Structures are given as C-alpha cells and as structure tokens.
Amino acid sequence: MDVGLILKIAGVGVLVSISSAILNKSGRDEQAMMVTVAGIVVVMLMLVGEIGSLFEAVRSVFEL
C-alpha cells in the first residue's frame, strides 16, 4: 500500500467533512448527506484497485 493513497483518502475525508459541515449549518441537510455518500463512493472506487492487487497477492502466495 502506498502512502500517497492514504493521503488521498484523508484529503477526501477532510473535504467531505468540511463541505458537509458547511451544508448542515446552512440548513441543507439532504445535500450534506449526498456529499457524504459521494465521498464514500469515491473512496471505495479508489480502494477497488488495491483490493484487487491484494487478492492477486493471496492467490500467488497460496498458488491458487
């Protein structure tokens, strides 16, 4: 796992939390929830490649 990936995930988390807090303070709760869900989806898409490489490593270790 790369340190850059961890920093990208942390950056997305910071941006999502700030924008969600701003939207909640202005009374736009539905849009804040959508921003949170979009942030989760973006992070999951970033992790899909890493999970795939993890499965390939497990397959090569156990020779499956």
Short description:
This protein is mainly α and 64 residues long.
How is this fold's topology laid out?
Elements: H1 3-25, H2 29-62
Rg, Cα atoms, Å: 16 Å
Report the span from N to C terminus: 22 Å
Strand content: under 5%
- Report helical residue fraction: over 70%
Helix/strand/pairing category:
mainly alpha
What is the number of helical segments per DSSP (H or I, 4+ residues)?
2
Shape: elongated
Q: What's the overall average pLDDT, rounded?
A: 93
Low-confidence stretches: none
Whole-number total of structural domains: 1
The SSE string, one letter per element, is HH
Please give the largest β-sheet.
none
Q: How would you describe this protein?
A:
With 64 residues, the chain is mainly α. It has one domain. Helix content is 89%, strand content 0%. The chain has 2 helices and no strands. The protein is elongated and about 55 Å long. The mean pLDDT is 93.
Brief descriptors of the model:
single chain; mainly alpha; about 90% helix; about 0% strand
